[in-house]
Amino acid sequence: EDAWQTRFLAPKDTPDGRHEVRLLLRDDQGRVFRETKSFLIASKPPTVRAKMDKLRYRRGERIDLKVSASSTTRTLVARFYGAPPAELRWNPAVGYNTGAVTVPLDLPAGNYTLQLTAEDFAHNIGVEEVTIAVAP
Predict the structure, then answer these.
(1) Which of 113, 55, 111, 116 minimizes the C-alpha distance to 86?
(2) CB contact set of 77 (below 8 Å; sequence gap of 6+)
């Protein structure tokens, strides 16, 4: 079996959501098959909201994250200057996507941006930025 793909333009007035399309397929022997497939229209980026217990941290301190995101979100990543990106995962016990980043030990005191990026299945990107104060 060979895999195949097709692309098509949906009419501009097609609302967001799941839709069905009927395919008529003809194989190399001339047989015709009918199949119904679904596709998803997602024109709006996911929403991202952080629930922060505090906004001031010290060097080396862990920033525990609780983040809500739209149900269509496929990936959710936190980025903080000087720290590796952290992927957040759904945690049913707390009802949020959770993860953590650690404030680098050598980071000078000041204000920094914690960026939360959500990507949905249609590759729309939603971002929330939170200002974090780093104390000496």
Answers:
(1) 116
(2) 85, 86, 87, 88, 116, 117
Look up residue 94 and give its two tokens. 């707390």
Give the DSSP letter of residue 36.
Answer: E
Classify 32 as helix, strand or coil.
strand
Q: What is the pTM of this model?
A: 0.75
| Cα 37 to Cα 4: distance, rounded to the nearest angstrom | 13
Beta strands 125-135; 110-120: pairing state: antiparallel
118 contacts 73 by C-beta, under 8 angstroms? yes
Contact between 112 and 132 under an 8 Å Cβ cutoff? The reply is yes
Tell me the CA distances in angstroms from 106 to 41, 58, 89, 103, one per residue in order.
45, 11, 28, 9
Structure tokens at 47: 């929403």
Q: Is 88 left (phi over 0), alpha (psi -120 to 50) or beta?
A: beta
User: What are 18-60's pLDDT values in tens digits?
Assistant: 899 999 989 899 999 999 998 888 888 999 999 999 999 999 9
Of 74, 61, 56, 72, the C-alpha closest to 112 is 56
